[in-house]
Design a protein that fits this description.
The structure holds two protein chains of two kinds. By secondary structure, chain A is mostly beta strands. Chain A contains one helix and eight strands; from the N terminus they run H-E-E-E-E-E-E-E-E. Chain A is extended and about 80 Å long. Chain B has a domain of 135 residues: Peroxisomal Thiolase, Chain A, domain 1. Helix content of chain B is 36%, strand content 17%. Bound molecules: zinc ion.
Chain lengths: 151, 389
Amino acid sequence: MEEIKHYEPFEVDQHLTANSRYYAGRMGSRFYVALRDQQKILGAKCPKCNKVLWPPRSTCHVCFSELTETVEIGPLGTVETFTVVTYNEPVQPRKAPFVYAVIRLDGADTGMAHFLDEVDLDEVHIGMRVRPVFARDRKANILDIQYFKPL
Amino acid sequence: MKRNVAIIGGGQTYHAARRHDVDQAEMVNEAVRRALDDAGMTIDEIDTIFLGNMEFFEGVHMTDCWLVHGTGAYGKPGLKITTGGTVGATTVCVGAHHIASGLFDKALCIGFEKQEEGDTGAILSGVAHPLWGRSLAGAAVGYFATMGSSYMATWGATEEHSAMVAVKARQNARKNPYAHLKLDITIEDALNSRMLSYPIRMLDMCPASNGACAMVLADEKTAKKRCKKPVWIRAMDTAHNEQFELDWRFVDTKRPIFSKVCAARMYKKLGVKKPAEYFDVFEVYEPATWAELIWYEDLGLCGPGEGFRLVEKGMTNIDGPIPVNPSGGVLSTNCIGASAMLRVWEAALQIRGDAGGHQAPKDVRRALTTGYGGTNWTVMTALSKTLDD
Ligand SMILES: [Zn+2]
């Protein structure tokens, strides 16, 4: 009988390290300055569509108008949809279990994805009213809002 | 082509090492609005949008999705193009093919790179083959350095010749308000600039720029109805090498390398016998000085080994008989995803007579542009003032 040899596949380990930095631009900068200095959440108003968009942006994606006006939204909001994450992966930003929710801030026409915390997992529901918890040390990151919690 | 295609508008941002004032969408939007204004069109009139940009050069993927508000692509058909240094030219090529085929009448093509936001060199090493090249790779300088060494040894050119290209590019850039490196430099400055990798010195290389370019393409009927100065895309072609045909950097190679193959096919399509006479202006993709001299030869503007004589005699100056890169070229501005599109747009401006301070002082009726990138390939575009040219 012919002898069958088994070879391990030959692997070459590959690593790429690439640093990047992102500039927040005109609207992004206004958002983060207001959040950092005043704990205010801003959206961009499109007068043509009569909508308030979060994240704020310099062009309305629907009507292509140039947007320059920001308005304060929230801080209270309503859970539009959610999930309870119950598995752990290195890529997850938190240890399970934790809640992801899409929150429609009062006065906004779009939702914001964020964590929901200080909440009984059995009580999370669509339509739940929530408020943000701001980080004490804010440094222009979306985690300057640490999470939302029930009213 | 099945249907004629024209460039009916375009625009670009100013190009700079820093654009801290805008995010990516805001920067792209500047070019898009200028292109639409130039074409006298609203975003609603655009049928399809093609966005060109390199993956992860600014630390992000899928820019076609998350820049939708900046590009105007919301709800429209379109594609993202990512083909290395050729990105911008490929994007124009894709737009033109979609119109030539009859699928769409009006296409918006956009190219951009915000190089300050990422680590282009690191991501470029991903272009190298994981088994045979990556552990040795170090971005783009070495590639052109080996080309330069071969060129000098084979033809007897000297570092003064590459310095002449370096000076021509930056002096032309001074006439172009959008260019990045508007440097008032001399041959001595170029020869005294820091050696990076023999024979490439600092001033032999392109900068890392931030910027965007956008162009509106249309079918013949739309172009004639809507545009006073349409510029016609007469022919386009692309050709690839095999990644490990490294001997293409040996400039005397007898192999049918991508640049010569592509040019030969273009010339056959157009019936070009003497390209230096047929075309009035050239915008070539020269990330390094030596690449420009080799383009002269590969495009047949002179015989093999004569490229450095052209620059020596000033033949390719803005006011010479064969103007090459009156815009200042890639050596003065390299926002990668836009760079090859800028070649096409700058050539179109020359044909329209709208290049302003860097307009070649002659009757420009035809122009040829090249792109080049990644693993040795090119996209070439031939433009004309009328359909009879
Ligand atoms: Zn709107």
